[in-house]
Design brief:
The structure holds two protein chains of two kinds. In chain A, 74% of the residues lie in helices and 3% in strands. Chain A is mainly α. Chain A has a domain of 246 residues. A two-stranded antiparallel ribbon of chain A has the order 1-4. In chain A, a hairpin with a 2-residue loop joins β2 and β3. The C terminus of chain A is likely disordered. Chain B is an alpha/beta fold. Chain B has two domains: 184 residues, Response regulator (Rossmann fold); 145 residues, Rossmann fold, CATH 3.40.50.2300. In chain B, α5 packs across α6, α8 packs across α9 and α11 packs across α12. Chain B is elongated. The chains are: A mainly alpha, B alpha/beta. At the A-B interface, α3, β1 and α13 of A face β9, α7, α8 and α9 of B.
């Protein structure tokens, strides 16, 4: 029996187990050290988790755009980060106008709704434009060509917005309705964090049920499975693809406003890093898989927020927050090594024989 | 026709040779009269061509205010000089550096490939200078910086590739010490925490602050770091809150500084902590980014009230030309840097017999280092052999609600160490 084992186990397997085991041991040592040290009390951990959930919800919404486009077109839409940026940056001018005219204070909910609508409309517009101009002509081109086009479109959009709105930073006005906090016993949660988490959850639930139940949603899933057969079944493939981009754009626009509410600063380059993180989240959860994107986003947010304190601090690393991006991406690499299809697996069609 | 005899041919040949040799010798004599040599290279500027000085500053992006401010200082200096040196017009070309190493490297490479540039003003951030200065010096271009304050740039161990670097800005060894003294002696703070962003400027400045603070008898609760593009500072701040500091010193740049300032009050345990930044965020753009959270915040910065009389005239010219007050701390240092370069050029430039101006690169650099008791707006400039020319006066400013509302920097220092 041992001989059979020795034939099946290759040196690669041994190295992989070694890496996995070392990482697991380090994580456990770090975590137990931090927890036994008792530096952070329960409400600190609650705070970390809330930060992570809020940040992760935003990643999840953006990741939906990446994963849906991959599902239907089998390409990574790198320009989605600019779709994400265009919404809140444009809505900033609306918000600033409301703020200076006093409308923001007198009708906070109405102005928030208008800001959301403007942002989602702009993002959707940019997404549809992208599809029409940059991606549709290249439907039959080899895989690499749309990828390069996406990167080029990303840069083009960044610098177009830089030209339109300037290279400086703009800061969203403070909305009094979102200031303050809710206290539950010893734990407290800031109002806008709660709003972000709840809004994102509602949006994701709405989008998921749309994809699962509505006819258009089913059609989109059909197109993801097989474009040719779907068109034979009477589905307008082009329209479904545009709808995919529209949904992705709307989610990104909403995520943009939530991001602006949390961080206040908007500028032409703001989409780059959230875009990469969201793409990472989509891959982490299983690219092409919508619940996977949601899960990946939240998981990434939590790891970034809790990871440095839980693991690195316990291992004695100085200034651990500098390494939070490193943790996130190392986790991505490890997940891909041990589970290449992502956490929830790639729920795409079975590979054609 | 008489046929030329051999003797005739020989006579003609010899006389032709003599005439040629004579004229060559005469020409040689004329060239020997005007020789201009330089170990690195000589820049020749024909009459009518401009003297080209380059500025490599962060004039776009998040830290645009820092570079635009120094560019304006240099432009006012050119105006004051009458836009000419020795009858040759001055040309100022500007390259954006973006306040990071990649931008500094790209800008310096672009400048280094232009052989008409005799000197540079910049860079804005120490992270740019680290790769950029050796690239410029390899092309023989010295640079005088108005705002890079990282101690490593004028350290005796800096290496010969940094020989082309001088600065009119202060050395951060002074700024960090002043900030620590303010915190410990004036504010009576015993526990402090620092945040840096991984850039050489921030890391070294907070290190000086921490060292001085500990020497004075205070306790540093923690020294944390974020990356300059981070937006969510709440986890870091939560970690800092567990150390219960009374002051957070975060000498970072505008984007990260804005986020930290806005998010501090949201973290449990940091509601009453004092905030202190440095010259990198002493700008109205920072007020825009941080909003009302920056009210009551302190900044360590060059002391404008210690500048000479010429500074008031400078401010008037600035207001007239640009319609607003200066938007960052280093405009006067840029003015002085430009004037230093002009005076060095005047010392070493030689006019040839045909009106061409010759400037030796090594000679220009030596003349810059030889700057002694140069009366600038920021004080008396005397360069030491590692490039520190400034007469540093650092003070601490406090931001009031008025400053935030009108987006102007405070006029008078809150505290001075002298």
């Amino acid at each position: 029996m041992l001989k059979r084992w020795r034939e099946r186990i290759t040196p690669t397997n041994v190295v992989m187990w070694f890496i996995g085991a070392t990482t697991l041991i380090l994580v456990i040592i770090g975590a137990t050290a931090t927890l036994s040290h008792g530096k952070y009390s329960a409400y600190h951990w609650f705070d970390f988790i809330v930060f992570g959930l809020a940040q992760g919800s935003i990643y999840a919404l953006i990741a939906m755009g990446y994963t849906m486009v991959y599902g239907t077109l089998r390409m990574i839409n790198f320009a989605h980060s600019e779709v994400f940026m265009s919404g809140p940056y444009t809505a900033y001018y609306v918000a600033a106008a409301f703020y200076s005219s006093g409308f923001l204070d007198s009708h906070p909910i109405l102005s928030l709704v208008v800001i959301f609508l403007v942002s989602m409309a702009t993002s959707t517009f940019i997404a549809v434009l992208l599809e029409r101009i940059a991606y549709r002509p290249l439907r039959t081109a080899p895989r690499l060509v749309p990828l390069i086009t996406a990167i080029g479109a990303s840069f083009f959009l960044q610098y177009t917005f830089r030209g339109l709105y300037g290279s400086g930073f703009q800061a969203y006005p403070v909305m009094k309705i979102l200031e303050g906090e809710w206290v539950i016993g010893e734990f407290r949660i800031l109002k806008f964090q709660a709003v972000v988490i709840v809004a994102a959850a509602l949006l994701m639930a709405a989008l998921y049920s749309f994809i699962q139940r509505a006819r258009t949603g089913k059609a989109i899933r059909a197109v993801s499975e097989d474009k040719e057969i779907s068109s034979l079944m009477g589905i307008d493939v082009d329209r479904m693809i545009v709808t995919t981009f529209v949904i992705g754009g709307m989610a990104a626009g909403a995520a943009g406003v939530l991001y602006a509410v949390m961080f206040k600063q908007v500028h032409f380059f703001m989409g780059f890093i959230p875009g990469i993180k969201a793409f990472t989240a989509a891959v982490l959860g299983g690219i092409g898989n919508i619940p996977g994107a949601m899960l990946g986003g939240i998981f990434l947010g939590l790891v970034e927020s809790v990871g440095p304190s839980l693991v690195l601090d316990g291992l004695g690393i100085v200034a651990p927050y500098q390494l939070k991006d490193a943790i996130a991406f190392i986790m991505l690499v490890l997940v891909l090594i041990y589970r290449p299809t992502g956490i929830l697996g790639e729920r795409l069609a079975v590979k054609k024989a | 026709m008489r046929r030329l005899s051999a003797k005739g041919i020989a006579l003609i040949a010899v006389s032709a040779a003599m005439v040629t040799a004579g004229s060559m010798a005469w020409a040689q004599k004329a060239r020997v009269d005007f020789k201009y040599e330089d170990p690195i290279g000589v820049v020749k500027i024909k009459p009518g061509e401009p003297i080209h000085i380059a500025a490599w500053m962060s004039v776009a992006g998040a830290d645009a205010s820092l570079g635009t401010d120094t560019r304006r200082g240099a432009e006012i200096a050119i105006e004051d000089k009458g836009r000419k040196i020795l009858g040759f017009p001055i040309k100022l070309s500007v390259q954006d550096t973006g306040c990071n190493a990649e931008g500094g490297q790209a800008a310096a490479t672009k400048l280094a490939s232009d052989p008409t540039i005799i000197a540079a003003i910049g860079s804005t951030c120490s992270s740019e200078a680290r790769p950029g200065v050796p690239i410029l010096w390899k092309a023989g271009i010295p640079t005088v910086s108005p705002s890079t304050t990282g101690p490593f740039l004028t350290d005796p161990k800096r290496g010969p590739e940094y020989h082309g670097y001088l600065r009119t800005a202060h050395n951060d060894k002074v700024q960090g010490a002043v900030a620590a003294q303010f915190a410990f002696k004036q504010m009576q703070i015993k526990r402090a925490a620092t945040i840096h962003d991984g850039s050489p400027y921030a890391e070294q400045l907070q290190a000086v602050f921490a060292e001085t603070f500990k020497k004075l008898g205070g306790v540093i609760a923690s020294q944390e770091a974020v990356s300059p593009t981070d937006t969510d500072m709440r986890p870091v701040l939560t970690k800092i809150a567990t150390g219960k500091p009374e002051l957070i010193y975060y000498p970072v740049f505008i984007a990260a500084g804005g986020h930290i300032t806005r998010q501090v009050k949201e973290v449990k345990g940091l509601e009453k902590v004092a905030l202190m930044g440095a010259d990198g965020i002493f700008s109205p753009d920072f007020y825009k980014a941080a909003g009302e959270a920056a009210i009551g915040m302190y900044h360590s910065s060059p002391d404008f009230s210690a500048f000479g009389e010429g500074y008031k005239i400078f401010l008037e010219k600035h207001q007239k030309r640009y319609g607003e007050k200066p938007i960052a701390p280093f405009h006067a240092h840029a003015y002085d840097a430009a004037m230093m370069i002009f005076s060095a050029v005047e010392k070493v430039a030689k006019k040839g017999p045909d009106g061409t101006l010759y400037i030796g690169r090594m000679a220009l650099t030596d003349a810059l280092y030889a700057t002694n008791n140069f009366k600038g707006l920021t004080g008396n400039l005397t360069c030491n052999k590692y490039g520190d020319c400034a007469d540093p006066r650092i003070a601490v400013y406090r931001t009031s609600a008025e400053n935030i509302k009108n987006l102007v920097l405070p006029d008078k220092p809150f505290w001075k160490p002298y």
